[in-house]
Design a protein that fits this description.
Layout (H helix, E strand, L loop, with lengths): L1 E6 L2 E8 L1 H7 L13 E3 L3 E4 L1 H13 L5 E3 L3 H9 L6 E2 L4
Parallel strand pairs: 2-3, 2-4, 3-5, 5-6
Antiparallel strand pairs: 1-2
Protein name: Lipid asymmetry maintenance protein MlaB
InterPro entries: MlaB-like_STAS, MlaB_ABC_Transporter, STAS_dom, STAS_dom_sf
Organism: Shewanella mangrovisoli
């Protein structure tokens, strides 16, 4: 299960994001984030597979305003490095 917890301009993603969750979340992807969201914090994302990473990038692309992904876990950083996606992620929220 995965949760989107909005706190001002930051949305905290909690739980696990695998292909199963992506399939369930895909139809509602347009409404998961507030239009005010500027940052998606991944600190509490316990696990993501490649489908989860693709979903995060889809959220960035479809969001109405610039959206940064920050604070990826070590597990997620391995996927980011594997797919050469460093330009989409920042280390931490300011």
């Amino acid at each position: 299960m995965v949760e989107f917890v909005q706190q001002g301009k930051i949305c905290h993603l909690k739980g696990r994001l695998s292909q199963e969750q992506v399939v369930a979340l895909w139809p509602q992807r347009q409404s998961l984030l507030s239009q005010d969201t500027q940052m998606l914090s991944l600190t509490e994302l316990e696990y993501s597979d490649s489908a989860g990473v693709a979903f995060l990038l889809a959220l960035v692309r479809q969001h109405g305003t610039p959206l940064q992904l920050c604070s990826a876990s070590d597990q997620l950083k391995k996927l980011i490095d594997l797919y050469d996606l460093q330009s989409f992620f920042i280390e931490e929220a300011n």
